[in-house]
Amino acid sequence: MNKWIFAFSLLATATSALAGDVTGAELYARHCVVCHQANGEGAPGIAPPISGTLMKRAGIPAGRNYLAQVMVSGMVGTISSHGMRYLGNMPPFNVLSDGELASVLNHVLLAFNGAEPPMAAEAFAAARIRAMPPAEVFKLRKSVLTQSGE
Hints:
Helix content is 58%, strand content 7%. It is mostly helical. The chain has a single domain, classed as Cytochrome c-like domain (Cytochrome Bc1 Complex, Chain D, domain 2), CATH 1.10.760.10. The strands form two sheets. It has a two-stranded antiparallel sheet. Helix 6 (98-113) crosses helix 7 (121-129). The radius of gyration is 18 Å and the shape is globular.
């Protein structure tokens, strides 16, 4: 009987390790670093910096909703950040769960922006329910920047 308990325990541990809890930093490294770079400074002309740029947006409810929507729906359109134009196309990250999206964004907000409080997975679930075309998310950005005073 003990060998079955050991075998089940070993299988459960292996399954947990494969599916296990992945940190926001690990998810960022897997999904975001190629465009936004390891330090969040972005890639000139392609992906804007997300380091030191999200505090005001994260500080208002509309901005937090916008950030969740960007990750769920993606965004297309030319933007300017720190005097540089970006012609990027942010893809939606619908391969990640709501909890994983929250982990990634919380990593970005805390590690690169010093912004709190953290985003809850429920914000991403709500964004999925009202998912938008990427061009509409771009329009939402303009409104949020005005509201946040950017």
